[in-house]
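Inverse folding, one chain.
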């Protein structure tokens, strides 16, 4: 059954839900072709479903004898694809070329709560028009390298790594990992978010170091949000002033997300190491990170190391001459951080041997 949510104002978003019949898709496509003021298009589907009729009609309208300018003001496309275990052996691709033939979008958000997104066998020339890309899914370093190499206008990039349908991801070739991908956009990238959500199996996509080591070279980056272990290994290293040299030199806003790869083994280390790290920002950041204005701290969703009164104590150590310190709960759902059930791991290992 079709389900539409049409906004009361002409320039608001339009939500298109899954389970649309082919006739309904065609009818709605005609309406969209006449919606010249639409700024955001939201497409929602499950694995095994598509919007081929909807997209087909819109492409015909744009390329046909009437030459309609379809969705000329649509700047943002949001594709939400749900994992369906009935289609677990289907190709993981969200077929983007179909969507990217329409509109003049510069912002693309792709969400897949479970499973992964692959661009391996797709024409990705559409990324040249992107200024903002957000991927909430499992994605490979090699795919990100291809995207960043061609996305010559990209200013904002967000990667939130969720649970895959297959945890055995191939290690990217040398020079085509996440760090190498980000260095392709060293002259354009201003905002970056990378969240691993406790998915340690994905760290290999960063390259041999398994850390976000390219940050000092991202000289135009102004906003960074990422997990602490991608920058500092507090389970092994004692925090020191040199840690600040691992950050983008012109950073203005930094969000550090507490996360521990081996939380049960590090219970005694957590409070002291976190306090020592944040104290460095309070006392030393004005010298090495002179542009830093905001330090935001997010306690771990699963195993946080500091009590509320300790965070208040840290907040009081920041003075008016340095960055402003703030703390808040994580805005990502808790189930993003839950471990993959062992039964599913066994099934995935079995399926990879065939």
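Residues assigned per position:
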């Amino acid at each position: 059954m079709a389900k539409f949510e049409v906004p009361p104002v002409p320039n608001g978003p339009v939500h298109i839900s899954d389970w649309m019949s082919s006739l309904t898709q065609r009818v709605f496509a005609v309406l969209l072709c006449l919606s010249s003021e639409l700024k955001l298009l939201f497409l929602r589907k499950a694995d095994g479903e598509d919007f081929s009729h909807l997209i087909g009609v819109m492409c015909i309208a744009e390329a046909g004898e009437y030459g309609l300018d379809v969705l000329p003001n649509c700047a943002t496309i949001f594709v939400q694809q749900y994992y369906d275990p009935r289609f677990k052996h289907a190709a993981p691709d969200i077929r983007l070329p179909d969507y990217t033939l329409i509109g003049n979008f510069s912002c693309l958000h792709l969400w897949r709560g479970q499973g992964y997104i692959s661009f391996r066998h797709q024409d990705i020339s559409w990324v040249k028009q992107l200024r903002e890309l957000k991927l909430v899914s499992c994605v490979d370093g090699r795919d990100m390298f291809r995207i960043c190499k061609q996305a010559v206008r990209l200013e904002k990039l967000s990667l939130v790594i969720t649970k895959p349908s297959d945890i055995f991801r191939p290690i990217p070739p040398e020079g085509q990992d996440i760090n190498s991908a980000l260095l392709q956009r060293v002259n354009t990238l201003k905002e970056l978010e990378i969240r691993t959500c406790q998915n340690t199996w994905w760290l290999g996509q960063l390259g041999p170091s398994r850390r976000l080591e390219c940050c000092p070279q991202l000289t135009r980056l102004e906003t960074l949000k990422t997990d602490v272990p991608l920058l500092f290994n507090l389970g092994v290293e004692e925090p020191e002033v040199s840690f600040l040299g691992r950050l983008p030199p012109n950073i203005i806003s930094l969000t550090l997300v507490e996360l521990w790869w081996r939380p049960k083994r590090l219970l005694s280390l957590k409070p002291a190491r976190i306090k020592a790290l944040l104290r460095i920002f309070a006392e030393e950041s004005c010298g090495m990170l002179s542009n830093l204005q905001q330090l935001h701290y997010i306690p771990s969703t699963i195993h946080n190391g500091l009590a509320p009164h300790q965070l208040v104590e840290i907040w009081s150590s920041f003075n008016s001459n340095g960055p402003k310190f703030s703390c808040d709960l994580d805005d990502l759902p808790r189930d993003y951080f839950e471990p993959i059930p062992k039964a599913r791991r066994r099934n995935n290992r079995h399926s990879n041997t065939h």
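The CA atoms of residues 70 and 206 lie 39 Å apart. DSSP finds eight helices and twelve strands in the chain.
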